[in-house]
TrEMBL record, chain A:
InterPro entries: Elongator_complex_protein_4 (IPR008728), P-loop_NTPase (IPR027417). This is Elongator complex protein 4. Pathway: tRNA modification; 5-methoxycarbonylmethyl-2-thiouridine-tRNA biosynthesis. Belongs to the ELP4 family. Component of the elongator complex which is required for multiple tRNA modifications, including mcm5U (5-methoxycarbonylmethyl uridine), mcm5s2U (5-methoxycarbonylmethyl-2-thiouridine), and ncm5U (5-carbamoylmethyl uridine). The elongator complex catalyzes the formation of carboxymethyluridine in the wobble base at position 34 in tRNAs. Keywords: Cytoplasm, Nucleus, tRNA processing. One of its GO terms (biological process) is tRNA wobble uridine modification. It is found in: Cytoplasm; Nucleus. It comes from Denticeps clupeoides (denticle herring). It comes from the Eukaryota. One of its GO terms (cellular component) is transcription elongation factor complex.
From TrEMBL, chain B:
GO terms for cellular component: cytoplasm; elongator holoenzyme complex; nucleus. It comes from the Eukaryota. Keywords: Cytoplasm, Nucleus, tRNA processing. The gene is ELP6. This is Elongator complex protein 6.
């Protein structure tokens, strides 16, 4: 039978293909396709939302996935308001891209300051405790195929790959953990298809004069559209092509490096350049199997009205507030944390309302093997009412 | 559509009013749930609807309408609904730099054009009666729904140009054709400075003046609450049905298939 077309536009509604197929098997294998009548094929690194069946991907940070309602819906945009020195926001961008590599997604990285190569060299190393689960997968594959000669110890699919990489060969698991003290192996990175956009190296064109966007944004939009179309993420290619997700990582939009004066003036001359770009980006995202993360230095944007519009033109929006350099850094109340995380907006696409965990008073900490996000609770000790109070932190479940 | 809201507004799909310009606004809240209400309401009432879906994709509106018991796809096929998908159309203009006059609807995205005449032309041709000279088509009266006007501000249109657009639409649809109009404007958290041309507050003031019914949605002053999503102030501004200049404030909660409204302090969670 023929698998029907995938639904686009963030409306990856249920029913999803049941997940009885062994994890990691690509959907090209015959045993999967023959029986498949579903309208949606299973793409590695995705899962349907329990609330509305929308197709979700992981941000690469499990606690962030939880806070925003389970993950990032395909076809949507996650806006991250950068912390003052762009250290934690940049880290989130790297987690997002690393997760893409581990899941076998395609990447598009855009930057106007550091070359995307530099960002990619800094991706954290995935923690490979997946090897055990892969072994059982191999056993399963072996037992399915009675013709498999005993001398072959691993499944035929993996026989040409070095053993250390089998854990990532097709990781269908949702969400992974990373060790930020190590960088991702070059050979793991190389297996991913990565597109890069480095503004200083892009050819200058006259497009800027003909649209409300700056030349830089227009050029970026055109490049993104070109890649989406050429690689078939908008459904342009025939059915036989293996379905995949493209992750767009766009660094520090709105900064002056993008030719935008949003961060310099209270009444910018390019007041609607970025919002126009974000609107067009939404159009691209809704009609393709892509998901985007955009970071912006919002602490430099003086015009709060424009910031409000930027937020509304995003789908999910969070802001990071680092304690570094502020008086909270030395405040014992916050000593276990690196900063606060504010959830500005969570989308409710294809439905009227979405249940999201209560997300007031969230604090984050970047640990070696985990980026944790927890709710801060303050408890007062009754014993010594005049002496101050003890503090308890309750972690998110 | 939401039954409680219908009774509050004294509205029914079997007997919907004419010549009404309803303005929906929000601040620190999301009033799009009201847009979905009016869309399903007017489709059920048998009106010809022109929907400018600028904020989201067609599939989003369609999925929500489905939950409210209305099929947008069928309405489109029947010719009852004219749906304009802004997201799809804008790419055609913004990516194909240089080529002119494809889709004049979004002319304002092109340089040297700062008005919404193209958009107005689209609207008026959508609601125009086709064929029948007597003016009684199968669908009556026509309705224009816009989600939302703030998108136009984000795309660089001035508040003045938007007000001109709504003024012309009101003249054609509400006055001339005795139809109805519903528009949503989303406002910023903080009040904007005076004299800010691009500001949504300037636009809001102008729209309130033009409308006959204003539904102003606000988040709770005390912050986010799971059981009370916000407050809506209903302000009857028109001269019709003796409700002129009356205001009523209600709290609301949106759920999967609709919304409930209740007087302040009477949420089931509180009582």
């Amino acid at each position: 039978g023929t698998a029907s077309a995938v639904c686009f536009g963030g409306s990856m509604a249920a029913p999803m293909k049941n997940t009885s197929a062994p994890a990691g098997l690509s959907f090209n294998s015959t045993s999967f396709q023959k029986k498949s009548r579903s309208k949606l094929v299973s793409i590695p690194g995705t899962r349907p939302s329990v609330q509305n069946g929308q197709l979700l991907v992981s941000t690469g940070v499990t606690s962030l996935d939880y806070v925003i309602g389970g993950g990032l819906a395909v076809g949507t945009l996650l806006l991250i308001e950068e912390d003052r020195y762009d250290s934690y926001s940049r880290m989130l961008l790297k987690y997002f891209l690393a997760e893409g590599v581990v899941c076998g997604h395609e990447l598009f990285v855009a930057s106007a300051w550091d070359h995307p190569d530099e960002i990619l060299q800094e991706l954290p190393a995935p923690i490979l405790d997946d090897v055990a689960s892969v072994t059982s997968m191999e056993d399963q594959a072996q037992s399915c195929d009675p013709d498999n000669p005993e001398s072959m110890k691993i499944a035929w699919r993996y026989q040409n790959l070095p053993k250390v990489q089998t854990a990532l060969a097709s990781s269908a698991r949702f969400g992974h953990y990373y060790d930020v003290s190590k960088t991702m192996d070059a050979d793991i990175l190389q297996r991913s298809k990565i597109h890069m956009f480095f503004l200083p190296e892009e050819a200058h064109s006259e497009t800027g004069a003909l649209s409300p966007m700056t030349e830089a944004y227009a050029s970026l939009l055109k490049s993104i559209h070109g890649v989406i179309h050429k690689e078939g993420f908008d459904g342009a290619t025939p059915q036989s092509k293996v379905r995949n997700i493209m992750r767009l990582g766009l660094h520090s939009l709105g900064s002056t490096l993008w030719g935008d004066d949003l961060c310099c003036r209270e009444k910018p001359t390019h007041g609607h350049a970025l919002t126009t770009f974000l609107y067009a980006l939404r159009g691209l995202l809704r009609s393709s199997l892509t998901v985007a993360m955009v970071t912006i230095p919002s602490h430099l944007i003086q015009n709060r009205a424009v910031m409000g519009r930027i937020t509304r033109l995003s789908d999910t929006a969070i802001a990071l507030e680092s304690f570094r350099g502020s008086d909270r850094e030395t405040n014992p109340l916050y000593k276990d944390y690196h900063g606060l995380l504010h959830v500005r907006q969570v989308p409710h696409l294809n439905c009227l309302v979405c249940e999201v965990p209560d997300s007031k008073d969230l604090a984050f900490k970047l640990k070696r093997k985990q980026f944790t996000i927890e709710v801060i609770h303050f408890f007062f000790q009754k014993k010594n009412p005049f002496f101050g109070f003890s503090v308890s932190f309750l972690p998110l479940k | 559509m939401y039954a409680e809201l219908n009774s509050i507004l004294n509205a029914s799909p079997d007997n919907c009013k004419q010549g009404e310009f309803t303005l929906i606004s929000d601040r620190k809240a999301d009033a799009s749930f009201l847009v979905h209400h009016f869309l399903s309401f007017y489709l059920r009432a048998g009106c010809k609807v022109c929907f400018l879906g600028l904020a989201q994709s067609f599939s989003h509106y369609s999925a929500v309408a489905q939950r409210l018991g209305v099929s947008l796809t069928q309405a489109k096929e029947k010719g009852q609904l004219v749906f304009y998908e802004g997201l799809k159309d804008c790419l055609g203009v913004l990516l194909r730099e240089g080529s002119t006059h494809e889709s004049p609807t979004l002319d304002f995205l092109r340089p040297h054009c700062s008005d919404l005449k193209g958009l107005y032309d689209f609207v008026s041709s959508s609601v125009a009666r086709v064929g029948d000279a007597a003016g009684t088509g199968p669908w009556a009266p026509p309705v224009l729904l816009v989600d939302d006007l703030s998108v136009l501000l984000s795309l660089g249109v001035s508040a003045g140009a938007v007000l001109d657009f709504t003024h012309y639409c009101k003249a054609t649809i509400c006055t001339e054709l005795q139809g109805n109009m519903v528009t949503l404007i989303r406002c910023e958290e903080e009040e904007e400075e005076q004299g800010d041309e691009q500001g949504s507050d300037v636009l809001l003031k102008g729209l309130i003046h033009q409308c006959s019914l204003a539904l102003q949605v606000q988040g709770l002053l005390t912050g986010y609450c799971k059981h009370i999503h916000g407050e809506v102030e209903v302000w009857w501004r028109g001269v019709a049905n003796g409700m002129q200049m009356q205001k009523k404030v209600l709290q609301y909660k949106v759920h999967d298939k609709g919304a409930v409204f209740f007087a302040r302090g009477t949420s089931s969670v509180v009582l």
